[in-house]
Design brief:
alpha/beta, eight-stranded parallel sheet, two-stranded antiparallel ribbon, globular
């Protein structure tokens, strides 16, 4: 499967690693660690050296309890980073983690190829217009509620059926508009209990019915560290274990903080299969 994302071809015939770069001071794991251009450049160099072929950069924290920020506030934080890394990393796919269409468009004009939108268009009605205009890759994620309340007792009759129904509605909507470069993200940890998250992982292959690439973001999340009674900093081993399961169950893209370990997972699973 190959997607043409803002003029750049994303070949998904092999599994891909999306490396996470958070410039927010409020990220649940690495907040404040990458708060300068030099630190971000170094971080991306390390991720690419370790096997990441997509870099996902964001300025707005979406951890449980976080508040939304407006487009201008987000641009004030991230615009210089977008300009800088667009010049320095032309040979990889750059993804902007945003729910604001103005931020998405700014990144796309600088050469970014993918928009990673936790809201699936919910927070900005112009997002779909921007995606279509630039023929961008679009990561569409499922989330129950909003970041500030999503973990306040989330409930489903069947979490997997609910996500499938959500994607069916969104895919029909995007098909009518003419947006086809869609990547699906079931949204681990976004309005789900630990039990919900493991059910999604167990039934991950059901999402292949959409015949769209599947992105999985499990890296150091609470379904690991809360279950094991450890901290996010101690959750790399658990992340590796669950990433291995995700690959076996059909994930096409692993969104991770630790690219080297994810790359090893993919190589080992390729040899197994």
């Amino acid at each position: 499967m190959t997607l043409n994302c803002n003029g750049k071809m994303l070949d998904l015939s092999k599994k891909k690693i999306m490396g996470i770069v958070n410039v927010s001071n409020d990220s649940f794991y690495d907040g404040g660690q990458y708060n300068s251009i030099d630190k971000v450049n170094s971080r991306i160099n390390d991720l690419v050296s370790d096997g990441a072929e997509i870099i996902d950069i964001g300025a707005a924290s979406s951890k449980p309890g976080s508040k939304l920020i407006n487009a201008q506030e987000e641009l004030n934080i991230i615009s210089d980073y977008i300009i800088e890394i667009s010049k320095n990393f032309r040979n990889i796919h750059l993804s902007i983690d945003t729910y604001n269409s103005n931020v998405a468009e700014f990144a796309l004009t600088k050469g970014f190829s993918i928009i990673n939108d936790i809201s699936s268009g919910k927070y900005d009605l112009n997002m779909y217009n921007v995606i279509k205009e630039y023929n961008a890759g679009y990561v569409m994620m499922h989330m129950q509620g909003d970041p500030d309340n999503m973990q306040n007792n989330p409930e489903y009759d069947d979490v997997v059926e609910s996500i499938i129904s959500f994607f069916e509605g969104k895919m029909n909507e995007l098909e009518v508009i003419g947006i086809r470069n869609v990547i699906l993200d079931p949204g681990f940890g976004f309005g789900k209990t630990i039990k919900d998250n493991f059910k999604i992982l167990k039934d991950l292959r059901l999402f292949q019915s959409f015949e769209k690439p599947l992105l999985v973001g499990l890296s150091r999340k609470s379904m690991i560290y809360k279950l094991l009674n450890i901290t996010p900093a101690e959750a790399l081993n658990g992340t590796t274990a669950l990433n291995t399961i995700a690959i076996e169950k059909g994930a096409d893209i692993l969104r991770v903080h630790d690219a080297n370990e994810a790359s090893e997972c993919i190589k080992l699973m390729e040899n197994l299969n």
